[in-house]
TrEMBL record:
InterPro entries: Vps52, Vps52_C, Vps52_CC. Residues 301-370, 373-519 form the Vps52 C-terminal domain. Residues 97-284 form the Vps52 coiled-coil domain. The lineage of its organism: Eukaryota, Viridiplantae, Streptophyta, Embryophyta, Tracheophyta. This is Vacuolar protein sorting-associated protein 52 A. It comes from Coptis chinensis.
Amino acid sequence: MLDMMASPLTNKLGGSYGETNDSSKNGFDLGMFVGDLAFEDDASSDVVSLEGLQQELEECQNDDVVANILSKGTKLREYTKGVENDVRQVELDSIQDYIKESDNLVSLHDQIRDCDSILSQMENLLSGFQAEIGSISSEIKSLQEKSMDMGLKLKNRKMPMLAPARFVDKRSVAELNLATFVEDIIVPPRMVDIIVDREVNDEYMRTLEMLSKKLKFVEVDAMVRSSKALKDVQPELERLRQKAVSKIFEFIVQKLYALRKPKTNIQILQQSVLLKYKYAILFLKEHGKEVYVEVRGAYIDTMNKVLSAHFRAYIQALEKLQLDIATSSDLIGVEARSSGLFARGREPLKNRSAVFALGERINIIEEMDIFFLAYQLSMFRRRIPCLDSYLDKINISLWPRFKMVFDMHLNSVRTANVKTLWEDDVHPHYVMRRYAEFAASFILLNVQYGDGQLELNLERLRMAVDDLLNRLAKMFKKPKLQTVFLINNYDMTISVLKEAVKEAVKEGQEKEDQEKEAVKEGGKAQLTQRHFEELLKIGMNTFVEELLLEHFSGMITFVKTQASEDPSSGSEKLLSATEVEKLVKDFASSWKNAIESMHKDVMTSFSNFLIGMDILRTALTQLLLYYTRLSDCIRRVSGGSALNRDLVSIPSIMFEIRKYSRIV
């Protein structure tokens, strides 16, 4: 190739190199060619150093492009310009392409910037992780060193115990004993901090155990007590003991106060607090006996009050649910004294009239009657009298038992001790209520049978009750109180019997086939009721007279005296105005206050409001009659017209009577 490039150049230069050797004929002088190119068109250019050109041409000798240019004889400057034009064109085309892809380049730029930001954050995060990992690595290294150190110490401590006795010398034994002594006698700062400043919790309990061991170690070992080290440690141990005892005392007292609060769940407080911190009490027992005795006394007192209150509430609730179950000692005339677990004086049995009342038990008895009657009817229709003799024997055996029980009630009334039964109270007596309920129950049970023997026994019981009631009434010192007591008991008995008679007639009328018998038995029951109604009427009249005599005795005595004389006999005593004037003036000045006092007396004396108002109306009506008769007597008095100005008008008295009657 170089020969081909050198041939035209040789012709152009006119054989300047014709005399060269064989080796020169196969090449060309590049230095002269380059020099010609350098100075042919630009003679005015600066001097160019050709140093190193030969080396560069030798390096380019094997370049295909340069060889191609030289073979064609193209001028380098022209070729250079062509190359520059091509480069410029390529540049322009590149610019156009860049402009076309500008949006994509902007987007790419933004993505690169975002990626750079994310990578920067990741770099910071990884740097932080690296720093933390370095810190953890240093901590792990420190812990590893401590673990190795502790393991070494543990190994050194175990060595004397694990080694055979022949390998343990006296020095090792002394070191072990000294280490044990120091460990048992020293007071660590952490122990002081927990005992003095920390709250009572699980850690405090563990610290108390450590303190207790140290205190026992100091107290038990005689050699320790004689050691000089104890003189330095013992004051600190004593102060810690006192502080621990004081702190435990305050803690336990607070919990005991919590037990006294109402609606406190004692069981939860005992299990979660007191039982959890039981070692605190053991510590007081071992190292603070005086405080322990005080705490124990406070706990006993607290639990005594708390449990007493709970048991009282529980017993009261049980008493509300307590059923009235009849026993052999529940007789009509027996003193109402209770006994047993829930006994409290005389109160409970006073209100046990339900024992003598029939109540819901009548339903059970009726069901049994229906069953046996249906059974007997069925057996009668089938002509199978297999159980008739058995039922007859039951009836025969039941009647003596009933008679015995009834006689027990009768004898309890007849032989009752009035002094023990009597109470200073005019309200109905519990014995009378027992009798009323007892008699009413038999009236209901006997309504369909009409047992004459039972009626006779009830009549005997009524007579005994009348006698006992009169004896109880005589225990009152004032006749007025005796009358009030009788009225209240009669009224209560009548109320109970009325209800029983009403139920008996109603029950009998529901069964048409026994209607006549029911009405008959109801009439017999009404006889007992009428007996007490008559007694009540007598007692009410007696009380009215006693009440009026208490407030208007002078007027009533005068009117009765005048009424006892017969005007037709001609022996009537002439009355003077002076004899009557005092009565008229006394009545005019006190009659309103007397009526008000009568009203208060009646309202507080009788347990039945309606009976009290009926008695008050009767008393006021009787008062009006007495006053009317007094007015008639005054008309017969000579000079009686002078007393008219002091007389109270009848309408005024009627107005007061209506005023108190409207209270009903």
